[in-house]
Design goal:
single chain, alpha+beta, Ribosomal Protein S5, domain 2, 4-stranded mixed β-sheet, 4 helices, 10 strands, 30% strand
Length: 194
């Protein structure tokens, strides 16, 4: 069964078309109008082996907030849609993900209970990208996908590297947690539903 999703979201602030394949090859075609964000989305897709196609027209004349948050909403909805009832998935994944001087520790539970716990990042810009938008993006994903994500930074370094480690790590952990375990016949929950 193909685990695909297609999301379209149109508001007065953003117009978004997104397609997502959980079982892809790491292909990413992202056009958000925010170069650093497109780069991070590409790292997420490549390291998670997802196929992601994304076209966004946003109110960047205001700032990047609406675009970044709304992409997170759509990506979260796509993850949930692609998973369906999540039959047979592993559900959990965790790891430590280095990027040069930075280290990101990340744990994920695809259990239907949205929660984000993230150590704060320094408030600054990476290129033209506001670091505060990283948490907004992941909060939008978590709440729309119904997943639990914990992130910490045992070793902070260059902020570009810290954020890059997070996006790569999230891709890797999401890939692992969404893999189908051939030993499991139902959903990974004693409740019988996620």
């Amino acid at each position: 069964m193909e685990r695909l999703a297609s999301i379209e979201r149109n508001t007065s602030e953003t117009q978004i078309k997104l397609t997502f394949n959980l079982d892809g090859s790491g292909s990413c075609d992202s056009s958000t109008g925010i170069g650093f964000f497109d780069h991070m989305l590409e790292l997420f897709a490549v390291h998670g082996l997802f196929d992601l196609a994304l076209k966004v027209t946003g109110d960047l004349h205001v700032d990047a907030h609406h675009t970044v948050e709304d992409v997170g909403i759509c990506l979260g909805q796509a993850i949930k849609q692609a998973l369906g009832n999540a039959t047979g998935i592993r559900r959990y994944a965790s790891g430590m993900f280095p990027m040069d001087d930075a280290l990101c520790t990340l744990a994920i539970d695809i259990g239907g209970r949205p929660f984000l716990k993230m150590d704060p990042l320094p408030v600054q810009q990476v290129g033209a990208f506001d670091s505060e938008l990283v948490e907004e993006f992941f909060r939008a994903i978590v709440h729309n996908a119904g997943i639990n994500v914990h992130v910490s930074w045992p070793h902070k370094g260059n902020l570009h590297h810290v954020i890059e480690a997070l996006f790569k790590g999230f891709g890797r952990a999401l890939d692992e947690a969404t893999q189908v375990d051939p030993r499991r016949s139902g959903v990974p929950s004693t409740k019988g539903v996620l």
